[in-house]
Amino acid sequence: MNCFHLDDFLAGWIGGASSVIVGHPLDTVKTRLQAGKGYKNTLHCVLQIYRKETIAGFFKGLSFPLASITVYNSVVFGFFNNTQRVISKFRHGDERQSCGMLDMTLASMLTGLMSVGLGAPVDLVKIRLQMQTLPCLAENLSLAGTTGNVNGNIAVRSVTLQGQPTYRGPIHCISSILRTEGVRGLYRGAGAMVLRDVPGYTLYFIPYALFRRWLSPEGRSSPHPCTVWVSGGLAGSISWVTATPADVVKSRLQADALHARKYRGIVHCVVQSYKTEGIHVFFRGASVNAIRGFPMSATMFLGYELSLQFFRGL
Asked: How far apart are CA 128 and CA 177, in angstroms?
């Protein structure tokens, strides 16, 4: 029997498209909080973006993730579920055998590792586009670990030139990175992404499976949409909050090359960020991650499960 099921990839694509549209505004706020400076808290960041860039500022860089993250989520969900089937086939001789927690953990970790190869360039371009502001960037952004004034910060070179952003769009961003940094530049921050996504996907799929099991009445063949929505939302919040420290480091490394480079790598970024801003810096954006993680993941899992039911009912 063939362990590969295409419908998992198609359902993941539909769920991914839904989640990107729902979560992108808060993703922009999260990126600004983590990689930028000058924002007192989440509300202040939201108000500053709205005042200086209007509502369009929250959707900056949306076209690229809408086109790419949908494919990314398709691959993630397709890979995860097909890996479970391969594991069940190998261990039990039957791909329809439900995976236990250990097998599901292995499938989740492999999914997190695989996802970096596709997700690192996507995240990099998204963050570069999100970090562009029409006002002078030097007023809002300074990365940890720089030398300059007594606070350890220097004014960063603006990414705008006479009101024009550095990158005209995702394609121009990719070509600029390849021209100036090479293929390796597209994978800047990939190491931190591995540290984020391997445990992150484990704390994404496992809680979802547990919550769905606990909230589903016994004897029901498929979970109710409300059960899927709540389970997915809770799993997303748990995963994103616990992944915040690694996400902060990743965001800083990926936004870093937008200016004069300040970090030599993961360890240097962690040390310099801690020295200049304290331990709390690694939890910057955690509240946004918790809030954003719920509707994004709830929409992702609901779109995935409903699409899967539709495809398998054809």
From this structure: 10
Task: Please state, in angstroms and rounded to a whole number, the distance separating the CA atoms of residues 162 and 63.
Answer: 24
Each residue's pLDDT tens digit, 80-93:
999 999 999 988 88
Average pLDDT estimate for 27-52: 85
Going from the C-alpha of 33 to that of each of 80, 168, 197, 266, 275, the distances in angstroms are 31, 23, 20, 19, 18
Question: Hey, which residues does 161 pair with through a beta bridge?
Answer: 164
Distance CA 86, CA 75 (A): 16
Cα–chain-centroid distance for residue 98? 28
The sign one gets for the Cα dihedral 73, 57, 278, 40 is: negative
**pLDDT, tens digit, 9 for 90 and up, residues 137-155:** 444 444 433 334 444 443 3
- Cα–Cα–Cα angle for 223, 225, 229, nearest 5°? 105
Of residues 222, 235, 247, the one with CA closest to residue 309: 222
Which DSSP state fits 11? Answer: H
> What are 164's strand-pairing partners?
161
Class of residue 193 by CB neighbours under 10 A (exposed 0-12, middle 13-18, buried 19+): buried
pTM of the model: 0.78
